[in-house]
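A quick word before the example. In earlier lectures we treated sequence and structure as two separate objects. From today on, think of them as two lines of the same record. Here is HAD family hydrolase written that way.
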Amino acid sequence: MIKLIAVDMDGTFLRDDKTYDREKFARIYQELEKKDIKFTIASGNQYYQITTFFKDFPNVIYVAENGALVRNKGKILALHAFSNDTVKQIEDFLLKQPELQFLISGAKSAYFPIQFTDDYYEISTKYYYRLKKIHNLNELDDKVLKFSISCPDKKTNYYVDFLKKNLGRYCNVTSSGHGEIDLILPEIHKAHGLAELGQVLGISLSDMTAFGDGRNDLEMIKEVGDGVAMSNADPAVLKVADHTTTSNNEQGVLTYIENNIL
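And the structure line, produced from the sequence above:
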């Protein structure tokens, strides 16, 4: 019996225009609450951004920053941060790469190195609702959870391999494609976050359903009891999924929950 549902956001739960069928979701969410099935967002995005989509649903739980931060509305349930020395090593390397721009994601806020472009800042504010400009690392008074990197779209795979080769001893390199790459703590990913949440709630991974479309969803799709890929998913995700559903633009997550869980 499924006791927890975890969904990725972009390309999975949200349509391409960043909306979802709120009326249908409200009906489904009410049924999930009656059956005591937890609804969880498992995203690479910032906690403060994700929560804006679910203001009317206070019991939603969040596995944010690709598993580094697990929390509900009231409190942090798990948090994993880089050491200060590792943050310095990664930042020094990234600053030497002229094609790369990056943000530093912390527990309190995200941070934008001032030398990067205004266009990149404007794009970043759409995904990071708490974003501060900084001149250097000395201004940080926060726990660093993740580095979010922007590279030329067509060179995404090249830079994933390049960063794995040069920074693999410090972090895991993951990407949802389209010029976006995340550097996260080794062994910290969405599946790890769901396992930690499961320990708090008394729910095993085998009693969870997870939905995803990108390569940063691979671990949770493989490790939960029912891993569901969107029809628009990366081929690697489709390969490991137990089931598939219709695309994000067709609200495949809601259709699957309605037809296969409720």
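Notice the following. The longest helix spans residues 22-34. We will return to this example when we discuss secondary structure assignment.
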